[in-house]
Amino acid sequence: MRRPHLLYAAAAALVLGGCAAQEGVRPKWTLQASDFTPITPQTTKEEVERRVGRPFFTMFFPRLEEEVWDYRYLIGVRTYVAEIHFDMQGRTRYTATYPDRCVTGPIGCR
Question: What kind of architecture, by CATH, is found in domain 25-110?
């Protein structure tokens, strides 16, 4: 009789653990498109982190000499991705935003 309760407790722990965010990463429901508007070319990484927090996901492209920071935010119920592309000096080259094509997260669809 106790086994179903243990199973429910384990399932709840997994669900709640999946909702935990990395330290310094703002949850997507706290960000909005307007948070990324002031980020223009030549904005430093420090300024970006101060404005929108640590990135959800980072990528480095050595041949392009570029680092990309990924953020997620909501417009209504739809999740969007904001990418900020930095040069090797840590200054913004450009930004890109688009609807997130994967509802399970950035890792699940790649």
Answer: 2-Layer Sandwich (3.30)
